[in-house]
Backbone:
């Protein structure tokens, strides 16, 4: 795929200056292919994933389309999560830096709707929002779309996975027919193709092929470890490579909670990102991560969507991803803007087959890393400390401290003992419970060499021992969301085993439509679910998809986290995970579904 320089594209002087300020000269493959077609006014389907530069691919042409004299909404960008909506909004504002008089607004659940209404009434040219909140504003008539020239569906597959199909269709149906429709998706499912046939006009397909998705600047290593030793191995790798800013991915909220707590106990500045946090709290966590105030951000895949930080040193796959695409999404968070990055994946026992599947999908050989020994880490710390002392001596101005040495001597302490005590106080390398333990997982290949089991040669190089960067006074906390089975069922959906996801949620004429019954399977509640009562039902034309879309859009939960839905004439029941109950009740109370204010409460047994 040919790459173009930005100065080769027919862009306005204002956009060229903004792009230059952002430090970009060459367009990415998706930008090189998509921007010319979108500038021509063509409908475009872009198959691309996070980290490929797709925001600028649709953001630049959108900005060139705007008539700043007309304060109507002219571009609508739909995103699956509030994090992604915020990221896109920030990128748009950077690109619009020199477009005087151009205004963009991000609208999403979990934030004051009154503030958003005020912003929309003042007049904006571009709206970036989640489907649920966009629908809410449309029903309130605080968002008018009759002047829209372009609509963008960003990460359309994720929006459909979260149960937003009906909302998306409703929004598109209420827009002018004479408009440009651009869709970006990591996959091309049947539902995606159905949307394109229905709402796009002779679209041009632009695709970033798989071997262009993995970042060449990222060194990828895997470590076959014992499950209980993951935190110890991670700590050693942080010290060995001198890592300062890291993203750590887990598959479940429970694991994120546990890991954040363990990291804090070890003295790391670690926090998490999850759907239970208010938007102000999410913004605060991300601001601290971008500023380097916290060094480790622990998250599940959905919580990490929208994270765009250029100087992430490394990504840790603490849990091996359950979906090959998410491996690519994860490692794309490091090695950005021409910098080098590292991706470390922990593999336990039978997970080796998942590693082989990831290698086959990415067409990249992931080398086996050697876990550094306790002695390796002590050696690294000693070398770093010696270098620091040497620099301090070279700086001079030590006279005051010589006087203190004399005071130590008067107190009956000799100089070597004083120096040794100070080293002990500052170096701080207590022997851990894993110091003399083999951390590697026993060979799961029954005697076969590692190169045969993983399709590549083993690497004996543990890494650069240039130093350690872990300070000894770290603190903080956090957690994240989405259970592991979120992706475990994806293949069954693609084969049609569950039917079409959006349609199953919306049902037909059954007055007790339930997500727990699909085909001939039994209605069975998942463990750890709590039933909530909602004060609307069939008489308000409510369908399961409305409930799923509202909860997912407002709380940030994944659609698949929501359990059985029963709809009666005047009320409905919905099951949500126990850990999400308080947040759902708080966020959804006095919110709207189908234009009706709703109340959520725990149902009586």
Residues:
């Amino acid at each position: 795929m040919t790459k173009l320089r930005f100065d080769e594209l027919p862009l306005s002087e204002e956009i060229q200056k903004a792009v230059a300020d952002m430090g970009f000269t060459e367009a990415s493959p998706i930008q090189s292919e998509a921007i010319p077609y979108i500038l021509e006014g063509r409908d475009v389907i872009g198959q691309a994933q996070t980290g490929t530069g797709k925001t600028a691919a649709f953001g630049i042409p959108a900005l060139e389309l705007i008539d700043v004299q007309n304060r109507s909404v002219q571009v609508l960008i739909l995103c699956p999560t509030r994090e992604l909506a915020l990221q896109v909004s920030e990128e748009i504002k950077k690109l619009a830096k020199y477009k005087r008089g151009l205004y963009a607004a991000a609208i999403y659940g979990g934030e004051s709707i009154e503030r958003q209404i005020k912003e929309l009434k003042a007049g904006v040219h571009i709206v970036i929002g989640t489907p649920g909140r966009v629908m809410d504003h449309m029903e309130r008539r605080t968002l008018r779309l009759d002047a829209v020239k372009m609509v963008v569906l960003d990460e359309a597959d994720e929006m459909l996975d979260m149960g937003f199909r009906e909302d998306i269709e409703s929004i598109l149906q209420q827009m002018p027919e004479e408009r440009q429709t651009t869709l970006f998706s990591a996959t091309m499912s049947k539902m995606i193709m159905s949307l394109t046939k229905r709402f796009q006009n002779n679209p041009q397909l632009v695709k970033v092929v798989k071997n262009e998705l993995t970042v060449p600047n990222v060194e990828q290593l895997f470590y076959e470890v014992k499950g209980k030793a993951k935190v110890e191995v991670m700590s050693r790798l942080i010290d060995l490579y001198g890592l300062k800013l890291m993203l750590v991915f887990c598959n479940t909220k429970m694991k994120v909670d546990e890991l954040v707590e363990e990291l804090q106990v070890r003295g790391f500045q670690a926090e998490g990102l999850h759907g239970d946090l208010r938007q102000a709290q999410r913004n605060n966590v991300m601001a601290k991560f971008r500023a380097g105030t916290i060094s480790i951000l622990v998250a599940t895949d959905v919580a990490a969507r929208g994270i765009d930080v250029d100087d992430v040193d490394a990504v840790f796959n603490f849990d091996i991803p359950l979906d090959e695409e998410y491996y690519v999404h994860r490692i794309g968070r490091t090695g950005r803007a021409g910098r080098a990055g590292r991706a470390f994946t922990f593999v336990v026992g039978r997970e080796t087959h998942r590693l082989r599947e990831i290698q086959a999908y990415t067409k990249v050989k992931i080398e086996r890393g050697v876990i550094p020994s306790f002695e390796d880490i002590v050696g690294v710390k000693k070398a770093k400390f010696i270098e620091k002392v040497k620099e301090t001596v070279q700086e001079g101005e030590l006279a005051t401290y010589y006087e203190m040495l004399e005071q130590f001597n008067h107190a009956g302490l000799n100089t070597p003992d004083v120096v040794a005590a100070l080293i002990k106080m500052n170096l701080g390398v207590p022997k851990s419970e894993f110091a003399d333990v083999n951390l590697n997982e026993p060979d799961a290949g029954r005697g076969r060499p590692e190169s045969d089991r993983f399709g590549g040669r083993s690497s004996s190089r543990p890494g650069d021992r240039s130093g350690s960067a872990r300070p000894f006074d770290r603190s903080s906390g956090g957690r994240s969301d989405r259970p592991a089975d979120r992706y475990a069922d994806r293949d069954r959906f693609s084969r049609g085993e569950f039917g079409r996801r959006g349609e199953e949620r919306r049902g037909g004429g059954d007055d007790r439509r339930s997500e727990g019954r699909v085909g001939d399977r039994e209605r069975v509640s998942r463990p750890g679910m709590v039933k909530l009562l909602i004060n609307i039902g069939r008489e308000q034309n409510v369908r399961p998809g409305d409930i799923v879309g509202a909860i997912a859009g407002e709380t940030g939960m994944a659609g698949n986290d929501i359990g059985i839905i029963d709809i009666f004439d005047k009320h409905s029941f919905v099951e949500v995970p126990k850990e999400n109950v308080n947040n759902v009740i708080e966020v959804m109370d006095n919110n709207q579904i189908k234009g009706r204010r709703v109340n959520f409460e725990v149902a009586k047994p």
